């Protein structure tokens, strides 16, 4: 029986629908876009392209979608399917967040989905067609861009290194869908040890225990990554030989996996390590590895900038110390020179006074009679000269000179004949 023009028989409708399905499969079969044709209120997977099967369908058809992916329930994907099937109206979801798989292989993904009702020849809804495009990389790139700009602004305004690294660690912990604990260790100048840089979510006892850890093969994830200058991925700390010496410490801190990336300077020298810890054994996804690379580069920029600023400040401090030392040396030299000039002046004055006194003494005649006899005078010959520390001098006879020595402090005798005080004291009676 031939259908009238403008009418479709059920077989014709089926044939058209079949060709449409083939066209859609051909259109999306090799595309990175996701396509699936679902039937019934349980959303049985009738047909799907490889991208959908790999991402959502897990390679299985002919079964309800929630049986293929139980984790999709309650994630905002099944609800729009139910709505499209129930109302017969198309629906579009933007940046739909799905957590796919479970355990160590779990990953976060974002999609733009379009849900189109499928109808039979009578116009009744028999299922839903789903077309989706994964926007995970775009979403993550947008998030990364915002965080990167904030970190770069911190670096540009020369925020303290600890503040930049702490902010970076918290940023990564907020970006990742699964719980992650971030740690940044800084290399000593000789590259032989790693020091605590930032780890806002790790317990203090753990940070203190690994502060100063040596770099070397088999020394945990970070020590090995620093030694190799390449990432070290430990998915299960309980079985990995690198963690033999730190297994108990990790268990106390509740850590089960650690992915460490070396932080390298532009010349290849070691600046530190960037580590992502997990509470459960985990295998890194592409996003995790990209995140580690991006933020290891950001950390390198911050650390190199810090080292440069520190070197500049150290150089300025040394220059200021040298200027202070030079100023002190100049001041001391000036004081010594002034003191030397004062001593020279005093010496010249003293020399002049000595010469003047000598000239005066030379000009005075040697008295004939004793000058020390007091008011009554003394007619004895003047044999000895006695003087005191004030410069007063006089000639006298031996008797009056001895009296002067007894009664006048700091007196001394000079005698042309006896040769001075010692000779006078030791003279023999005549």
From TrEMBL:
Entry keyword Coiled coil: yes
Residue ranges of domain GAF in the record: 160-313
Coiled-coil zones: 312-343
Gene3D superfamilies to which the protein is assigned, alphabetical: 3.30.450.40, PAS domain (3.30.450.20)
Keyword Coiled coil: yes
Keywords attached to this entry: Coiled coil
Top-level taxon in the UniProt lineage: Bacteria
UniProt-recorded name of the protein: GAF domain-containing protein
Species annotation: Actinokineospora diospyrosa
């Amino acid at each position: 029986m031939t259908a009238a023009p403008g009418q479709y028989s059920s077989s014709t409708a089926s044939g058209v629908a079949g060709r449409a399905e083939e066209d859609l499969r051909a259109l999306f079969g090799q595309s990175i876009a996701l396509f699936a044709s679902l039937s019934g209120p349980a959303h049985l997977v009738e047909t799907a392209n490889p991208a959908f099967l790999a991402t959502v369908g897990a390679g299985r058809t002919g079964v309800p979608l929630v049986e293929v992916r139980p984790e999709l329930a309650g994630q905002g994907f099944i609800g729009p399917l139910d709505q499209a099937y129930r109302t017969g109206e198309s629906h579009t979801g933007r940046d739909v967040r799905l957590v796919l798989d479970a355990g160590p292989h779990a990953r976060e993904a974002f999609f733009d989905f379009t849900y189109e009702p499928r109808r039979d020849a009578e116009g009744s809804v028999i299922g839903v067609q789903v077309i989706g495009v994964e926007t995970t990389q775009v979403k993550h790139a947008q998030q990364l861009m915002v965080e990167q700009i904030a970190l770069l602004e911190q670096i540009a305004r020369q925020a303290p290194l600890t503040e930049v690294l702490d902010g970076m660690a918290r940023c990564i912990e907020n970006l990742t869908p699964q719980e992650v604990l971030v740690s940044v260790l800084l290399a000593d100048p000789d590259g032989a040890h790693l020091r605590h840089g930032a780890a806002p979510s790790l317990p203090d006892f753990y940070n203190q225990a690994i502060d100063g850890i040596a770099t070397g093969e088999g020394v945990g994830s970070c020590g090995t990554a620093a030694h190799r200058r390449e990432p070290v991925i430990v998915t299960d700390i309980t079985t990995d030989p690198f963690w033999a010496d730190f297994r108990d410490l990790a268990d106390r801190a509740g850590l089960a996996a650690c992915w460490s990336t070396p932080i390298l300077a532009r010349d290849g020298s070691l600046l530190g390590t960037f580590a992502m810890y997990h509470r459960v054994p985990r295998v890194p996804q592409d996003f995790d590895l990209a995140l580690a690379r991006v933020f290891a580069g950001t950390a390198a920029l911050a650390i190199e900038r810090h080292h440069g600023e520190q070197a500049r400040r150290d150089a300025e401090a040394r220059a200021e110390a040298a200027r202070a030392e030079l100023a002190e040396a100049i001041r001391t030299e000036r004081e010594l020179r002034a003191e030397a000039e004062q001593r020279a002046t005093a010496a010249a004055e003293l020399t002049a006074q000595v010469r003047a006194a000598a000239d005066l003494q030379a000009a005075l005649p040697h008295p004939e009679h004793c000058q020390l006899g007091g008011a009554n005078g003394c007619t004895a010959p003047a044999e000895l000269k006695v003087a005191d520390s004030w410069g007063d001098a006089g000639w006298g006879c031996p008797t009056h000179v001895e009296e002067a020595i007894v009664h006048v402090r700091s007196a001394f005798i000079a005698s042309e004949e006896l040769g001075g005080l010692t000779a006078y004291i030791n003279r023999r009676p005549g």
